[in-house]
TrEMBL record:
<dbReference type="Pfam" id="PF21230">
    <property type="entry name" value="Nakanori"/>
</dbReference>
<dbReference type="InterPro" id="IPR053085">
    <property type="entry name" value="Jasmonate-induced_protein"/>
</dbReference>
<dbReference type="InterPro" id="IPR049065">
    <property type="entry name" value="Nakanori"/>
</dbReference>
<protein>
    <submittedName>
        <fullName>23 kDa jasmonate-induced protein-like</fullName>
    </submittedName>
</protein>
Length: 214
């Protein structure tokens, strides 16, 4: 397991234990992962890790980023766009298994600018179609913070849509969500110069499902 990925993954075996006799689908695995979002203190572990990076980095604008996979399958890092700033010390998690948190710190450049960036993770919807989840944040040197997310077909972000996305990001407030082709994501960012940015990547309907675990 990478040093900046936290929590035991939610596997087929775990879901079978919880739902004996029921067919294990990607959607069901996603639902269990979402219900296990804080299991074993993995959310606290992710937060402690990124706060430790911030302490190491010191003063200056930065985004304390924590992202969670509740898609029912492994998500793979597939790209980024830095408008302002760069990753600090620990890299973007290469893979985040279902039911795991990834954490990293994104910091401003050495000149007078903020942290403004986007990351892309690739996975599948419930019909085995490849999709890309894009999460983005903006902490300007002067002004309010922003968060924006969207989901598109696999490899969509290998074409340069970044100027357009930057405009969408900067028009948003501190909370945004998107649903597309059976996938869902939501992002939030706090106030101030070094806020928490939290992104949850999942499937449509999972975050609103109220069914309790057995």
């Amino acid at each position: 397991m990478a040093g900046n990925v936290f929590g035991n993954p939610v596997t087929d075996e775990l879901v079978q234990e919880l739902y004996p006799g029921q067919k294990v689908t990607r959607k069901l695995k996603a639902q269990v992962a979402f219900q296990y979002i804080n299991a074993g203190g993995k959310d606290v572990d992710a937060k402690n890790f990124v706060y430790g990076l911030k302490e190491q980095y010191g003063n200056g604008i930065s985004a304390k980023c924590m992202i969670y996979n509740a898609t029912g399958d492994t998500l793979t890092y597939s790209g980024k766009k830095d408008w302002h700033g760069h990753i600090y010390e620990s890299p973007y998690p290469a893979k985040i298994q279902n039911g795991q948190w990834g954490a990293f710190l994104h910091v401003h450049p050495s000149w007078f600018a903020g942290s403004e960036s986007a990351i892309v993770y690739r996975g599948y919807n419930d019909n085995d179609v490849v999709c890309d989840w894009m999460l983005s944040w903006g902490i300007p040197y002067i002004g309010d913070n922003h968060a924006y997310t969207e989901i598109r077909e696999g490899h969509h972000y290998e074409t340069d849509h970044w100027d357009y996305i930057k405009g969408l990001l900067e028009s948003q407030s501190t909370r945004h969500e998107d649903t597309w082709n059976g996938c869902h994501s939501n992002v939030t960012i706090g106030e101030g110069t070094s806020p928490e940015f939290v992104g949850i990547m999942t499937l449509e309907g999972v975050t609103t499902k109220k069914k309790s675990l057995k």
